[in-house]
Amino acid sequence: MTSTDAWPSIRGIAYGGDYTPEQWPREVWLEDVALMREAGVNLVSVGIFAWALIETSEGVFDFSWLDELLDLLHDNGISVDLGTPTASPPAWLFAQHPDARVVSREGVVMGFGSRGMASHSSPAYRDAVVRIASALAERYGEHPAVVMWHVHNEYGVPVGEDYSTHSVRAFREWLQGRYGSLDALNAAWGTAFWGQRYGAWEHVGAPAATPSVANPAQRLDFARFTDHQLRACFVAERDAIRARASQPITTNFMANQSWTTDMWAWAREVDIVSDDHYLWAADPEGEIGLAIAADLSRSVGGGKPWILMEHSTSAVNWQPRNIAKRPGELARNSLTHLARGADAILFFQWRASRYGAEKFHSAMIPHAGTGSRVWREVVELGGTLAQLEEIRGSRVVADVAMLWDFESFWAQDLEWRPSVDVTHAEQVRAFYERLWRDGITVDFALPGQDLSGYRLVVAPAQYMLSERDAANLNRYVEQGGTLLVSFFSAIVDENDAVHAGGFGAPLEPSLGVVVEEFLPLREGATCGVSWPAESAAPLVADAWAEDVVLRGAEAIATYVDGPGAGRPAITRNRHGVGVGWYVSTRLDAVGLATLASAVYRDAGVTPSDAPEGVEIVRRRSDAAEYTIVVNHRDEAVRVSAQGTDLVSGVELDGELQLPGGAVAVVRTSRVLAREVVAGLR
Q1: Side-chain half-sphere exposure of 287, counting CA atoms within 13 A
Q2: Interacting residues of 153 by C-beta distance below 8 A, sequence separation 6+
Q3: How many domains does the chain contain in total?
Q4: What CATH number does the domain containing 676 carry?
Q5: 3-state SS class at 285
Q6: Which helix (H) or strand (E) holds 161?
Q7: 142 catalytic, yes or no?
Q8: I need a labelling partner for 265 at 20 to 30 A (CA). Which of 74, 409, 471, 554 fits?
Q9: What are phi and psi of 550, to 5 degrees?
Q10: What is the C-alpha to C-alpha distance for residues 304 and 183, in angstroms, rounded to an integer?
Q11: Can you name the residues that pair with 547 across neighbouring β-strands?
Q12: Whole domain around residue 561: which residue ranges?
C-alpha cells in the first residue's frame, strides 16, 4: 500500500462506469450528465484511451476539452476516476520510437491500431507514461471532481509477454538481480539438461519460440519477469501522480480472467483493489465464475471493500457467441459483486460507441437509447444501490480458504505435463463450485499466508510448492486445521524442479502419503472409486489416477478398476490435532459432493440448506449483519430470514419469499444475529 489508504470521497455505494465523451459532440455531453443524474450515477472513469487527444505530439498537451468536461461533471455532482491513457499510446510515439512496439514469441512485431501495443521495457515508453501521468496530476491533482486515479487499463491484456530487444535486455538484468551469478542461474534452471548451460550473461535470452519445448524454469522466470515489468510501469506512473496529488490510486485487475499478473503482488501496490469482470457466455452458470472473481478481488486486498471497475449491462462483443443478459440479470450480477465485498458498481461503458472494435458491446445507454429495457434496469439499479448505502464498509467473513497461487498456475500450465486434461483452471472451478453449491463463502489465500483463522483449507491445484510454504501447511494441520489437497499437488519447487523424495513429499507430514507414479487415463476413460462408508455405488472419476503409497494415512476409498485398481484413491491422515485429506483422482460432481460432506464433518463446516441455485453471502459491520440472498432460479423460493430487507423495505419474521431472479439484502442487528445463530445451534 502507498501512503494514501482511503476510499474515494463519495457518499454511499459508487455507481457509474467508463465515460468516453471524446467520442461525442458537446451537445451529447449535456444530455449525458442529465441522464447520469436520473440514473443515480456518482462516479465515472474518464480519459482511459485519450492519450492522442491530451498529448497531441511529444510534450505538447491540450487540456481544454478535459478542463471543460471535469468542470461539467463536478457542477452536476458527478465524481471522476481520472485515467492515465497509457494502455493505448498515440501513433506519433511509434513513428518516433518504432522500437517501442511489442514483439511476439514468434518474432512478429505488433502493429498500430489496437491497444496494449507498447513494450513495457522500452525506455521511450517508460519516459512517455511518466510524462503524461505527471502532466495530468499536475493539472488535476486538486480538481474537486477528481476523487481517484486510474492508472493504465487491464495490465497484461491483450499483450503481456514481450520478446523485443528491450525486453530481452531487461530480462537479463532482472535475472542478474535475482540470481547474482551464472552458476546460481544454471543450477535453478537445471541447464545441465539438454546441454543448455550458460557461460556468459550475454548468451541468456528470453524463451522465444524453439524447435522443441523451451526450458520450463526459464519460461516460469519469464512469466515472473513479465509481471515485474508490467508492475514497474504501474509504480512509475503511480509515483509520478503521488508526487503531485493525494487521491487514492488504483488500476483495474482482471481476476480469474487474465493470468499474466500476480494479483497478490499488485494488491500491495494499489490503494484500492479494483477489478473488471465479464461473464463467459459459454458458461451456463456464469454466476459461479463471477463469484470466484469477486472473492479473489476481495481476498488479494486483505478483505477490504473493493471496486467493480467494469462489468457489462448485457452482452460483450469479444467472445465467440455474445449472449445478452436476461431481464434482471444486470442487477443480479451487480448485487452479487456487492455481496462479495464490492462497494462500487461500475460498467463498461456509459454510452455505446457507434464505431470501433467495441461498438457491439452493451452499455448503460445502449444503441436503443433510453426507451430500452437495459436503460430502465440501469435506473432501477441506481435506486436500489442508493437504498443500500449503509452496507458500505462492511466485511465478508469466510470460514474456508482456497489456495490460489499465480506462480504455481504459470508453472502447471506449461507444456509436456502428464495429461492435457488436467489444468489448474478446471481444478479450481470444480472445488470452488462444490463449496458455492453448499453455500460456503470462500477466501482465497497463498500457501504461505497465516491460515489459522480458517476451519478448512482447500488446495485444488498447488502443483508448485516451496519447502517453506509446505511447512506452513503442515503446521496449519498440526495445530488443528483441516486440509484438503487434490491430485498433482506439491510436485515441484519454486524452480519447477521435482521435489527430492518424490511427488508430494513436502506434504507427507500432514497428508501421510507420497505418490509413486502418475496414472493418467486415456481420453474418455473413467474409473470407479469404492467408498463403502459414504456411498453404496462406486464413485465415478476420470482423467487422472495415481499410485499412492501410505505413510501413516488411512485409505478411505480405493480404486475399483483402471490403472490404479486396488490402490488408495482418497486418504485421511491425523497430524497433530488436525486432519489432512488427499484425493488422487478427478471425481465427478456426485463424487465431489460425497468427499466434501466427509471433509466438512472434520472441519466443523456446516453447508447451507438454501434451495439449489440460491446464493447466500453475509457481510458484517460493527452494528449489523447483512445477508444478501440472490435467487438465480426462474421460480420463487422461500429462505429462512429475519430482519429488514433493505431492497423492498419489508420486515421479515423468520421467512423471506423471494421471486425468481430477485435479490434481497436483509439487515439484522449484530445482537439479533447472534441470538438467531444461538437458536439454530
Answers
A1: 24
A2: 48, 49, 83, 87, 88, 115, 251, 252
A3: 2
A4: 2.60.40.1180
A5: coil
A6: none
A7: no
A8: 471
A9: -75, 130
A10: 43
A11: 517
A12: 400-603
The closest alpha carbon to 606, from 354, 408, 438, belongs to 438
Q: How far is CA 510 from the centre of its chain?
A: 29
Q: Is residue 525 part of a domain?
A: yes
Contact 518, 488 (CB under 8 A): yes
Give the Cα separation of 434 and 440 in Å (integer). Answer: 9
pLDDT at 259: 82
571 burial level (CB within 10 Å; 0-12, 13-18, 19+): buried
Domain boundary among 552, 573, 603: 603
Tell me if 247 is assigned to some domain. Answer: no
Of the candidates 583, 603, 623, which is a domain's last residue? Answer: 603
For residues 595 and 435, the answer to whether their CB atoms sit within 8 Å is no
Helix, strand, coil shares, percent, the chain, to 5: 35, 25, 45
Chunked into runs of 10 residues, the chain (681 residues) has average pLDDT values of 62 97 97 98 98 98 98 98 98 97 96 92 98 98 98 94 98 98 98 97 97 97 98 98 98 89 98 97 96 98 97 97 97 98 98 97 98 98 98 96 98 96 96 98 98 98 98 98 98 98 97 98 98 95 98 98 98 98 98 98 96 97 96 97 96 96 94 52 41
Closest CA to 51 of 110, 124, 135, 109: 135
Same domain, 592 and 496: yes
Q: Tell me how far CA of residue 179 lies from CA of 182, 458, 468, 668, in angstroms.
A: 7, 33, 19, 55
Catalytic residue among 237, 287, 310, 494, which? 310
CA 406 to chain CA centroid, nearest Å? 10
State the pLDDT at residue 681: 41
Spot the catalytic one: 154, 407, 494, 546: 154
Q: Which residue has the cell 546460481?
A: 184
> What whole-number distance in Å separates Cα of residue 131 and Cα of residue 136?
9
Longest dimension (CA), the chain: 76
- The residue type at 369: G
The alpha carbons of the chain give a radius of gyration, in whole angstroms, of 26
Whether residue 584 is found in the same domain as residue 634 = no
Cell numbers for 533, please give them. 462408508
Strand order in the sheet with 482-486: 442-445, 400-403, 456-459, 482-486, 578-583, 568-575, 554-559, 526-530, 539-542, 586-587
Q: What CA–CA distances, in Å, run from 155 to 361, 663, 668?
A: 20, 33, 40
Q: Are residues 530 and 621 in the same domain?
A: no
First vs last C-alpha separation in the chain: 41
Residues 589 and 651 in one domain: no
- Are residues 309 and 275 in contact, defined by beta-carbon separation less than 8 angstroms? yes
Handedness of CA 9, 11, 17, 21 (dihedral sign): negative
**Distance separating alpha carbons of residues 545 and 418, to the nearest angstrom:** 11
> Tell me, what's the pLDDT at 258?
80
Q: Which residue has the cell 494514501?
A: 4
Pair 596, 621 in one domain: no
Which residue in this structure is represented by grid cell 431481464?
Answer: 327
220 and 230 in contact (C-beta within 8 Å)?
no
CATH code of the domain in which 542 resides: 3.40.50.880
Look up residue 475 and give its three cell numbers: 503446521
Same domain, 632 and 512: no
The reply to whether 508 belongs to the active site is no
Q: Is residue 267 part of a domain?
A: no
Separation CA 554–CA 570 (nearest Å): 9
H or E stretch covering 307: strand 306-310
Answer whether residue 388 is part of any domain.
no
Specify whether 428 is located in the same domain as 528. yes
Same domain, 424 and 571: yes
Q: What's the pLDDT score for residue 286?
A: 97
Q: What is the full DSSP assignment across 426-493?
A: HHHHHHHHHHHHTT--EEEE-TTS--TT-SEEEES---B--HHHHHHHHHHHHTT-EEEEESS-S-B-
